[in-house]
Amino acid sequence: MSRASRLLDLLQLLRRHRAPITGPALAEELGISIRTLYRDIATLQAQGADIQGEPGLGYVLRPGFTLPPLMFSVDELEALVLGSRWVAVRGDARLGAAAANAVSKIRAVLPDDLRESVDAATLTVPMFRGEPVAIDASVIRAALRKEQKLIITYRDNDGAGTTRTIWPLLIGFFDKVLVLAAWCELRQDYRAFRVDRIQSVEPKDERYPRRRAVLVKEWRARQNIPATAGN
Prior knowledge:
- This protein has eight helices and seven strands, in the order αααββααααβββββα.
- Strand 3 and strand 4 form a beta hairpin.
- The chain is α+β, with helices and mostly antiparallel strands.
- It comes from Archangium lansingense.
- This is YafY family protein.
């Protein structure tokens, strides 16, 4: 087993244990010596992992540590690069730029052999021309994160415009359009809004009264969508 794989296994093991786990127990489960374990813990701490504890007391990994990209396998890197390229092609300008920046950050910290794998990725995404969007979709994404109401002007199938207050739930990426699932206060029900038909969007300084996770679960049940089918 390579050292990178061993460090990854140690991180995964610590993530599974919310309570402190002793050094000997960790070493036994990983099949390494206690001396190697202490050295690996010191390495992870130096890389930014918030591992708390000491010999004789046990160790616990605090939430928030991001896995170093150098620990990704070639298949994992290809999946990340493909996903980022898909977002760059299908997402709005801000989301696309974020995807490109993410790949650049991953590439910058990779060993030479893995960096070559990123540069020579064998999977690609064709160019895409969807329906033009008049608004800044990042405003919707920000409202989703904050569980914040939005006021939108929407054009329906017949071209008629209405102003609505909605509780945004999630954005779905379909073949040629983005669709926003939301609770509509005007209709007092769940509705789907094509993002390219939203003429204006304005955040309202008001959170919606129910948690987004609860609303999404209810919406999925209404649509007969399994809970495991995406986010």
